[in-house]
Structures are given as structure tokens and as C-alpha cells.
Design goal:
Largest sheet of chain A: 2 strands, antiparallel
Order of helices and strands of chain A: EHHHHHEHHHHHHHHHHE
Helix content of chain A: 55-70%
Radius of gyration of chain A: 27 Å
Largest sheet of chain B: none
Structural class of chain B: mainly alpha
Distance between the termini of chain A: 22 Å
Strand order of the largest sheet of chain A: 1-3
Distance between the termini of chain B: 51 Å
Largest interface: A-B, 29 and 18 residues
Oligomer: heterodimer
Chain lengths: 394, 31
């Protein structure tokens, strides 16, 4: 019987040997059939990426260009295939975005190019690729990561979409500001209507779910910031667009409710240390529209104040909100036609776009800043749950 | 920092779209 003699980690060189015939099995077990929610939940973040890179290292060590090419092509096609199959599964998309980025970082960190080696330990430097320059494959992986990012944005958009209008505009969390007194009858009616409707809380809870999944997958913090910024942009754009189309959303009290909701979203960013993500800034048009609902709209001074305050809104949007503005109680009044003309006159030199609605489908360009890992490849062990017993640690 | 002993060979890569085409034709060929 063969006896397993445990080797010390320092004896390993951080490579994984595999037979060419096992490549298909590797892709099947590690990519196509891996369940992010099941097995992968207990893995070290980015483990599939490290395993694939350690296989690339071994093929590079053998100086077998066909083996390197074949593995990289199968990996890329495998990731595309699994994401086609699970196209609306946030967990799967987040998992493979994180791993594709980690794989890309590995190809840079161990490329042997000095610019990428600054943070390497001497041992990590010994693990650089020896025979092949994979710069072109890095470009392909970067293109793939962009595709996956765009898919992730579409998935989160589909999940958030039904919550936004209800949670950001319709549902009222501030009692008694709507101008309609919360009488017993009213309260009963609204509590029935509330069942099954989304609230701001639903949106915050969804944010928490997205956030914890991305953290669990070890997504790069800089990438996570971009996802959150994009998420906030969608919320801001969809909310503003609906406000611009609905008279019943253009009142002083809705302005108050929106500002409260925005403050809660900001609080979420602060809580997650994401205030420097640029996410809050994407809400600026919505914030200004809410302020516009609340400021005085009568005198020339008011007009001047509005024009300098609303620099993130187009003239068309400002005029639309003023036109839609609807008093809900006796203390408020409609905006006069002459006041709106004054505003138009003051803004005519702005030359901004005639666009009324925001492009809610816009996706900000994504970048994947290099994020080297301190993990020592030679210490990586493969859990048996991955069914990769055919790989040999070298 | 270790210096490279000899220049590495640049492995030419197909683009993502080309790779996809290769993949489709492979799938089509398989029974």
C-alpha cells in the first residue's frame, strides 16, 4: 500500500500538475459544476482562480505552449458558459467576476514584469512564469471581466427595478407629512396595501445582500465601489424619472420623504465605509429635485437660488418639476407661470441638453485596478469537496 | 527582485469574440 508522507509546505513550488486529458474534468468540476452557494461558500476567496493559475504555472514550467493556450481558452470559455447558464444569478455572476479578476491579477503579479512585482515577497518572485508572456491573454481576460461586470449590473438592476419606485417614492415612512391625516381608517387601508409592497427597508436589505455576497467572494474593494456606485446611479435615475412623470410625486412632502430616503442610503454607505465610492454623487440630481420641491418658488430671489442650486438638473427637468408641483394642503400654492418663465430666462444661457429623462441604462466604464495578493501559492491546499483529486501539488 | 534570465515567448491570443467562435464551431462539430 502506498504510504502518504506529508511534505512540508516549503517543499512545494506553488504549482499544480495535471494531465492534458484531465483539462476537461478540471473545467467541469472547478467552473461548470461549482456551486457558489454550496461548496464555494467555505473556500478561501479566489481559490478557483489560484488553482487555475497554479495549473497555468505548471504548463508554463513544462514549456508547453499548447497546454497553456488550451487551458486558458477552456477556462475563458468555461466561465462564459457557466454565466450563460446562470445569467440572472447574482451569486454566480459575482463569484466569477471576483475570480476572473483574481486570475487576471495573478497573471500580472507573477508575470515577471517589474511594475507588477513591487509588493511581492522574494518567494512570490520565484513563482513568476518562466517561459511565456501572457500579456495578450490578460487583455482577453480583462475583456471578459468587463462583460461579466456588465452582466452583474443588469442582474442587480433587474432585482432592484421593482423596488425602486415603491421604496423611494410611493411608500411613506415619515408619518403625517403627506398632508393626509393618518386616521384610523386610513391607517388600516394603508397597512393592507403595504403587504407585498417594497419599502426603503427592502432596498437597504437588498443592498446588504449584494454587499455580503460580494465580500464573501473576495471581490476587489475598488471593484465593489464601482458596483455600488452603479447601483446608486440606477436608484437615482429611476426615482427621478418617475418623479418627472408623476404629478402625485411632486409635492413638498414627497420632497421631504425623498430626502429622508436619500439620507438612509447615505447612512448605508457610511456604515459600509463606501463614502468615497462616488455613489452618493450619482444621487445629486434626485437630491436637487427633492430640494426643488421644498424651497420657496415665488420671488426673483427664489428663482436665483433655484438656478444656482439645481446645477445637476437640466433646464427641462427643473421646469418640469415646477410645472408638476402640486400643493397638498392649504399652506402651499402652485408655481406661477411667470415664475417658471423667470427661471427659463435665467437658464437660457446654460445650453444644456433638452433631455428630460435620465438614461437609467447607462453603465459607467469599469476599471480593474491591480490588486496583488499576499497569499503564498505553495501553502494552498485543495479541499476534497472540489473533486480535483487528479491534480498533484508540485 | 529576480531578473529574467531570458525573454519569455509571447503567446498570441485570439480575441474574446474569436474564442467564442472557436467554441461554437467546436460545439457544432460534437454530436
Amino acid at each position: 500500500r502506498p504510504v502518504n508522507i506529508p511534505r512540508k509546505e516549503k517543499d512545494f513550488q506553488g504549482m499544480l500538475e495535471y494531465k492534458k486529458d484531465d483539462e476537461l474534468k478540471l473545467i467541469k468540476n472547478l467552473i461548470l459544476e461549482l456551486k457558489p452557494r454550496g461548496v464555494a461558500v467555505n473556500l478561501i476567496p479566489g481559490l478557483p482562480a489560484y488553482i487555475l493559475f497554479m495549473c497555468v504555472r505548471h504548463a508554463d514550467y513544462l514549456n508547453d505552449d499548447q497546454k497553456v493556450r488550451s487551458l486558458l481558452t477552456s477556462t475563458i470559455n468555461g466561465i462564459k458558459k457557466v454565466l450563460k447558464k446562470r445569467s440572472d444569478d447574482f451569486e454566480a455572476v459575482s463569484f466569477w467576476l471576483s475570480n476572473t479578476c483574481r486570475f487576471l491579477h495573478c497573471l500580472k503579479q507573477y508575470s515577471g514584469e517589474e511594475g507588477f512585482m513591487k509588493h511581492n515577497t522574494p518567494r512570490q518572485n520565484e513563482h513568476c512564469l518562466t517561459n511565456f508572456d501572457l500579456a495578450e491573454y490578460r487583455q482577453v481576460l480583462s475583456d471578459l471581466a468587463i462583460q461579466i461586470y456588465q452582466q452583474l449590473v443588469r442582474v442587480l438592476e433587474n432585482i432592484l427595478q421593482p423596488m425602486i419606485v415603491s421604496g423611494m417614492l410611493e411608500h411613506e415612512t415619515i408619518q403625517g407629512v403627506s398632508g393626509v391625516k393618518p386616521t384610523g381608517l386610513r391607517k388600516r387601508t394603508s397597512s393592507i396595501a403595504d403587504e407585498g409592497t417594497y419599502t426603503l427597508d427592502s432596498i437597504i436589505r437588498q443592498h446588504n445582500t449584494f454587499y455580503s455576497i460580494m465580500c464573501q467572494h473576495g471581490m476587489d474593494p475598488e471593484l465593489m465601489k464601482q458596483v455600488v456606485k452603479q447601483m446608486f446611479y440606477i436608484i437615482g435615475a429611476v426615482t427621478l424619472n418617475n418623479l418627472l412623470l408623476r404629478k402625485d410625486m411632486c409635492s413638498w412632502s414627497k420632497g421631504m420623504q425623498i430626502r429622508y430616503n436619500v439620507s438612509q442610503l447615505e447612512e448605508w454607505l457610511r456604515d459600509k465605509n463606501l463614502m468615497n465610492s462616488g455613489a452618493k454623487e450619482t444621487l445629486e440630481p434626485l437630491i436637487q429635485a427633492a430640494q426643488l420641491l421644498q424651497v420657496k418658488k415665488k420671488t426673483d430671489e427664489d428663482a436665483e437660488a433655484i438656478c444656482s442650486m439645481c446645477n445637476a438638473l437640466t433646464t427641462a427637468q427643473i421646469v418640469k418639476v415646477l410645472n408638476l408641483y402640486t400643493p397638498v394642503n392649504e399652506f402651499e400654492e402652485r408655481v406661477s407661470v411667470s415664475f417658471i418663465r423667470t427661471i427659463q430666462m435665467r437658464l437660457r444661457d446654460r445650453n444644456d441638453s433638452p433631455q428630460l429623462l435620465m438614461d437609467a441604462k447607462h453603465i459607467f466604464p469599469v476599471t480593474f485596478p491591480f490588486n496583488p495578493s499576499s497569499l503564498a501559492l505553495e501553502t494552498i491546499q485543495i479541499p476534497s469537496s472540489l473533486n480535483l483529486g487528479f491534480l498533484t501539488r508540485v | 527582485t529576480t531578473t529574467r534570465q531570458r525573454p519569455r515567448v509571447l503567446l498570441k491570443a485570439p480575441t474574446l469574440a474569436e474564442m467564442e467562435e472557436m467554441n461554437i464551431s467546436e460545439e457544432e462539430e460534437s454530436p
